[in-house]
Fold these 4 entries.
Entry 1:
Amino acid sequence: MGEGGCRPLGFLIGLPFALIALVFSVVGAVIWVIGSVISCLCPCCCCFAGLANLAVDLIKLPIKVIRWFTEQIPC
């Protein structure tokens, strides 16, 4: 089977946490858009680049949470 194919229990246990992470992902997307606009308007603000990188990590959070939970449950 493919990766994580026999681990539905980990997926089901991680689903509520992934939904919470999805909310953080939406917040990260908003922060990323605002940070991108501000960094385009004022390129001297290098701190917004770090903020945009943090926002991208927040956007990827639901996938990381589901992968972590499925890896914790053995086949």
Entry 2:
Amino acid sequence: MFHGLTPDNCRYLAGNYRGSAFPCLRDYKVGVLGDRRVGTPPHNVAFEMQLFEAQLQLVIKAFAQDVQKAGKFDQKLLLAFIDILAKFLVYFFAIHPYANGNGHSGRLMVLVLLKRFNLDPKSWPLDQSPSYGDAIRAHRDGKPGLLRNFILDRILN
């Protein structure tokens, strides 16, 4: 999954959190086009990822219970699930836990969660970054519609 993303002598750059005790990662800061909402300080990344994981587990467990109660995965549940996916994808990208490979990892997370509920997206690229940057920024700005529609389109089309 991370083939070709790192120099051969720095493979630790992919798959290890920024702030880890590796050369270059200990103090590795990131930012995206001047958006201060992106890039948890390196020394906080591991803690933020623990929070992220705990929150995601709670939300997915509650959602699975909702699906079980409903007995079927209807349109209302699909839209609620897409909102969960969008929220956690944006949250993951805001932490930006890795020096490289965040896009791959975030898209893999979404794919795993889709498969968890037996949803097979028609188009969800792992290796190529889709053009969803504007949708992610809009979601951060409190306008989730673009990202919701992007994810829904990839599931259905």
Entry 3:
Amino acid sequence: MEAKWYVLYTKSRSEKKVETQLQRLGVKAYCPVKTEIRVWSDRKKKVFVPLLPSMVLVKLLESERNLVFNVSGAVRYMFWEGVPVVVKDREVEILQDVEAGNDMIVSDVSVLKPGKSIELSDFGFELQTGKVKYVSGNQCWVVLKDLGFVVKLQMQ
């Protein structure tokens, strides 16, 4: 049997702690983050913010799924229609590329209009189509109905 990536819900603002604790237990865990500059009245600071709030991806065998509950901050797995959600290896690779800052380039931005269905293979999503919800400048929000997410795409 092959290990699969599952989506684990965590307590709010506990994603990185849960990831670290899981890795100490020998569980392959991944919490993708993005860098943001936060501004206070007296300083600026670079902070790492999870791309998937309150979620950590874990790769393990079906029989090992209960191991994660030995970690403080792990809440439950994400389910869809009574079955645990499994994330494809390719989708995890895409998240790693996004985190690493690898650019995804679109050749024609002018065709992205609200309500239009688009193929997302240009953005690294394998066999996914989405419906454009909103376009603003060089940003585009796309609804991925099958996954139940809205993705914000940054175009250059």
Entry 4:
Amino acid sequence: MTDSGSDEFDPTAPDQREIGREMVDDSTGLGSVMAHAYRGEVDRVGTWRQRLDETTTWAVTLMAAILTWAFSSADNPHYILLIGIVVVTIFLGIEARRYRDYDVFRSRVRVIQENSFVEIILFR
């Protein structure tokens, strides 16, 4: 049976920190590949962040429109508020799912920053 801690990645361990150093020392092109991968991941994080902002904007705009219409006249039915709450809940569910994906991509970028680029900058 293996130790459960052996599968975990520790960025402070000396053998794990060697990855960035090897990237700089060897002229295999790994540095170029990592730079392109990093650029792609940063773009993906930006795209997901924009999607999160759009969902929030739609939820706020929809609720403001419903509140404005529902309270603009006494003749307007107020059950529309319940429908608005259901729709906003759906938007928030979509946003929670998108935030999970955003967090995965953000953590990938952070791993590249901590374990590759820091080594390149500090130990060059």
